[in-house]
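We were asked to recover a plausible sequence for a given structure. The inputs and outputs are reproduced exactly as logged, with field labels preserved.

PROBLEM: sequence recovery
POSITIONS: 262
GIVEN STRUCTURE:
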C-alpha cells in the first residue's frame, strides 16, 4: 500500500466521522458559507503567480515547521505579493486543521486554497463553510466522472478548482470547466521529484488553461526554470516553511525573483 493509499483510507474514515458530527445543512449555517469568494484565476493573472503554502509537515519530509503561526505567516505572504494562499487541512499526515483557515479568513484579501484529499461531496461543503475560495482535486484519487461532478459542485458553491495531475494518463481528467491545472513535480506514490517530467506534461495541456507547478521547487533556479518553460503559477510551501521565519523567506525570494515573476 502506497502512502497515498493510506491517506485515502484514513480520509474515508475522517469524512464518515465528520458527517455524524455536522450535517451539510449545519455546514450551510456557518459564518463563512455565504461570503463572496475570491478568484485564484484572476489573482494569478494580476499578481506574482505564487501560491504560497502554510504547511507544518508532510509524509515525505516529516515535521517542517511546528512553530509558525498561520496568521503571522499568511498575512506576510499577502503583503509580499502572493497570488494566493494554500493551507493544508489534513491532520494525520500533514498536521493541518480547519482552524488554520478559519483563523486567517477575515484577515486576508486573497484567495485561499483548501489543500486536502477531496473524495466526497461533503468535503466541498466543509471547504465552503471554513472560508475556502478554491479546492484541490487530485486526479490520482478520483475518476474522470468524479472530477467533472466535483468541479460542477465546487462551482455551484462559488469556489474554483485546481486539478492536480502527474501522469499523461491523468490528462483525461481535465475538462473545460476546470479553473487551473496543477502538475505535481512530486510523484505522490513514491515522492520522487522530476521537473523535466512536469514540463513535458505541461506541453500537452490545452494552451488556454492556467498551469501551476506544484511541489519540489527547492530554490530560485528551479523556479526560474519552470517559469521559463511557461508555467503560469507556482505552488510553493516547503521552501518557505522550512525557515524559522517563513514570511521573511518569502519576501526575500520574491525580491530576488522580481525579474522573472509574472
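RECOVERED SEQUENCE:
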Amino acid at each position: 500500500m502506497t502512502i497515498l493509499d493510506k491517506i485515502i483510507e484514513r480520509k474515508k474514515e475522517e469524512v464518515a466521522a465528520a458527517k455524524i458530527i455536522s450535517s451539510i445543512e449545519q455546514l450551510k449555517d456557518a459564518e463563512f458559507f455565504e461570503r463572496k469568494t475570491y478568484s485564484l484565476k484572476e489573482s494569478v493573472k494580476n499578481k506574482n503567480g505564487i501560491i504560497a503554502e502554510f504547511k507544518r509537515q508532510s509524509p515525505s519530509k516529516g515535521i517542517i515547521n511546528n512553530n509558525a503561526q498561520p496568521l503571522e505567516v499568511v498575512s506576510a505572504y499577502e503583503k509580499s505579493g502572493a497570488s494566493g494562499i494554500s493551507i493544508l487541512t489534513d491532520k494525520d499526515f500533514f498536521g493541518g486543521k480547519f482552524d488554520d483557515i478559519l483563523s486567517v479568513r477575515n484577515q486576508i484579501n486573497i484567495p485561499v486554497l483548501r489543500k486536502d484529499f477531496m473524495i466526497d461531496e461533503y468535503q466541498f461543503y466543509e471547504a465552503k463553510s471554513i472560508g475556502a475560495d478554491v479546492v484541490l482535486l487530485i486526479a490520482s484519487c478520483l475518476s474522470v466522472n468524479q472530477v467533472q461532478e466535483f468541479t460542477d459542485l465546487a462551482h455551484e458553491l462559488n469556489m474554483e478548482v485546481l486539478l492536480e495531475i502527474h501522469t499523461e494518463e491523468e490528462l483525461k481528467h481535465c475538462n473545460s470547466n476546470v479553473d487551473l491545472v496543477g502538475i505535481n513535480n512530486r510523484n505522490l506514490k513514491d515522492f520522487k521529484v522530476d521537473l523535466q517530467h512536469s514540463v513535458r506534461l505541461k506541453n500537452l495541456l490545452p494552451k488556454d488553461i492556467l498551469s501551476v507547478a506544484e511541489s519540489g521547487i527547492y530554490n530560485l533556479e528551479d523556479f526560474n526554470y519552470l517559469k521559463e518553460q511557461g508555467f503560469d503559477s507556482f505552488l510553493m510551501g516547503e521552501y518557505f516553511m522550512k525557515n524559522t521565519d517563513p514570511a521573511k523567506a518569502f519576501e526575500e525570494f520574491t525580491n530576488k525573483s522580481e525579474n522573472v515573476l509574472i
